């Protein structure tokens, strides 16, 4: 017999070898029908895998991320099985579950898989799913795995097997398809009721531009057709909110092949929006005693060797810049933190002046693969709202709490109300990935855990997700249509102060190491603006929007009155445009609705005579007639209520 501990703490005994599915059946037949995966001692397992020792377990239904992972991982194998039948000789790369659905990278040889082929692949997947094929796990030796996949010419699988450790290799088989895989998977394909193959794209093998371009097929599946229908509606809404589409319509940013891939350029309206975000954070930072600094866009290669960034990220950076001086190399700045360490070292520091808080909107450069570039969310040049706090060990938790306060102010001001936090710790079984002593890591991790507890913030703990130099707290925001984005981050770092030999003189007159806190509430300005565009569908808060008001003269006779009002309002820092086109008023209203300008002011003979404007609010229609001064006060009061409350 073995002892099984359930999530509520209760313990029951079962026969050794019992499966997750049998455990669910022992509770209720309804649960057995709904459960999709099981966590056994913090590891996700197949429901059909025997449990041989005492274990703590949790059964997962569809709403759990673990269940979706198993469901979509199994669906990736189902797609591969369908492709194997439809395209004899096709070779397989990897097919993971992702946040929404799954993909599979394949090499179809001389055949080309196009968008028009996707319905055929869908139909074959449904046909196979309806067979309710059992998905069977088996162990295999490395030698046998190499022979098995080598004999059938699966060159991508054999390359993966070469890197695996013997004794820990497993296969999964369903029908006539067998894949190299760690799992977990569903018991059989019967739970997969609704299928959509979403798109086809190219992807370099192993993400290496020097390797072969494979075909990547994206898909999503659900246990009910209604769920798929709802998702497809959501997908259409997401297309309408695409920041690339809205950014072009509102003339916020652009890209140019002549300038270079992944290098965004901010147009005047987008620049104005971004600068308002920066000014908003700068005001908050002044309240929290930050000092603004500016650093170069390049740095000597040795700077990043010292920091450890070159060893970890050198291959993902732009190649070194060689100067006329023999052996001298510079890098485009991939990180701001090494520069800030050098600023801290500029002069001797005393314990009395700590914490030192250095802030910079610093532009950095990373050589992202061209296939990974996506609008503003994946770029090669981006600006981080970076700050680095150098403090005494006894100040870490208090400083961490203050940074959390700043992040909450920003989320409140921009109506990001639905968010969750994740504490990222190092992987205790893979410590060579990280730099620094065990003692420092333990202190840093404990500081984050205690700060979250003190704030009453429920944070999910993820082992193995820490930065190479320290643990961190990340904030995942859900936008207006429920999608999850990683935005703000706070990281505790005992290691860079060691590497740069940072010091302060303590109360005991001895030299001590400061602790470094990295923080970026927005993350990157590019990514944050992209998320904000999609969250608001381009209908920005009044204080932030590039144009707050557009004035629409009924005819050319009233253009002078319109421009007079605009001049008065602009003098009060209200952002106003005049639409003086020779168009009918109905057309002007429709066109400016599409521009997402919050207020439209219609002016004609009556308004000009009385010093008034006829007011329309975006999405709300006619709001009546007002005196110009009263409308100006309305706008200024609304802006004050939206933003200035956070800067008092």
Automatic annotation (TrEMBL):
Cofactor note: Binds 1 zinc ion per subunit.
PROSITE patterns assigned: AA_TRNA_LIGASE_II (PS50862), TGS (PS51880)
Gene Ontology cellular-component terms listed: cytoplasm
Reaction catalysed by this enzyme: tRNA(Thr) + L-threonine + ATP = L-threonyl-tRNA(Thr) + AMP + diphosphate + H(+)
Pfam families tied to this protein: HGTP_anticodon, TGS, tRNA-synt_2b, tRNA_SAD
Main location: cytoplasm
Location in or out of the cell: Cytoplasm
Cofactor(s) annotated in UniProt: Zn(2+)
Domain Aminoacyl-transfer RNA synthetases class-II family profile positions: 242-553
Enzyme class: ligase
Binding positions for Zn(2+) per the UniProt entry: 337, 388, 518
Keywords recorded for this protein, A-Z: Aminoacyl-tRNA synthetase, ATP-binding, Cytoplasm, Hydrolase, Ligase, Metal-binding, Nucleotide-binding, Protein biosynthesis, RNA-binding, tRNA-binding, Zinc
MF GO annotations: ATP binding; hydrolase activity; metal ion binding; threonine-tRNA ligase activity; tRNA binding
BP-aspect Gene Ontology terms: threonyl-tRNA aminoacylation
Domain of life: Bacteria
EC number: 6.1.1.3
Residue ranges of every copy of the TGS domain listed in the record: 1-61
Family: Belongs to the class-II aminoacyl-tRNA synthetase family.
Assembly behavior: Homodimer.
Listed name of the protein: Threonine--tRNA ligase
Species of provenance: Paludibacter propionicigenes (strain DSM 17365 / JCM 13257 / WB4)
